[in-house]
Specification:
It is built from nine helices and eleven strands. It is of the alpha/beta class.
Amino acid sequence: MQGAKHCRLVANGTDALEISLRCLGVGKNDLVGIPGITFYATAEAVINIGATPILIDVDPTTGLICVNSLTNILKLHPLKAVIPVHIYGLPAPMEKIEPICLDNNVAIVEDGAQASGTFTHTGPVGSGQNSLTTFSFYPTKNLSAMGDAGAILTQSDEMAEKIKVLRNHGRGANDVIGRNSRCDHFQAAILHLKLQEIATQNQFRKDIASQYFKYLNNSHIKLLDQKFLKTSSWHLFPVRLSDSKACQKLKKWLDSNEIGNSPFFYDKAMGQMPALKNCPGESKFSEQFAGTILSLPINPYLTKEQVQFVAETINSFEL
């Protein structure tokens, strides 16, 4: 499905990030670039291996990692790796990130926790030649297990073998300290079955996204560029408001009409979290973006009538 030569299952998506960084030789006191908008696990994985997160700012219209900010950061900080995040299922601009990182000898770990079925310039996320790609199969994901599970995709035979060793206590190699990060057989069996349906369910999600683009019409609500209809897995359907107060007002309006919604943990930028407040880097647009997003219902079982009801309710929203 994702176009990779190797897929190594691990216990969860955070372990996938940590193991990937270790495979690339990232460790104590190394610098790793992360976007200012992401789930905390992206930063957590860097910190857990003794490395230091460096904040890279985001595109203020999407929340995706900003290429100009990456270029600026590389002038100031000798990054050993960078973790672009395909947030909401939207593809990070890998066609621009890859050459920059290659020119600067910076390793890439793509965080595809929300991107099962997302496409970049090379094809499905995970099909690129120059990175390791991590996935989470937490029960809320497009491709989900019945509990925690994760995976690392790579085109490299060498990296695949390193992952295999590290996820299983270092067994199979001398003087390697690994961890217990095996995916149990039950979760693997569930994922094997769900793989048969994921393309169909992702298409349902895209159809729902298309309906939202068609029906949503409120000047207070900013939608993503429709170009993402072709490339996103639509794990979430985010809408953006002018500020956090407007976002909270919309949330109350949706709650009062019994419409599910979620900020999905991006009410604060990474640099605004207590454990990361002293991290170097750039965070201006990340902090402006944080708290301005709500995600609308987009599970593949929604009916057209339900989508229209959501749109009509939002269209009647007033600040």
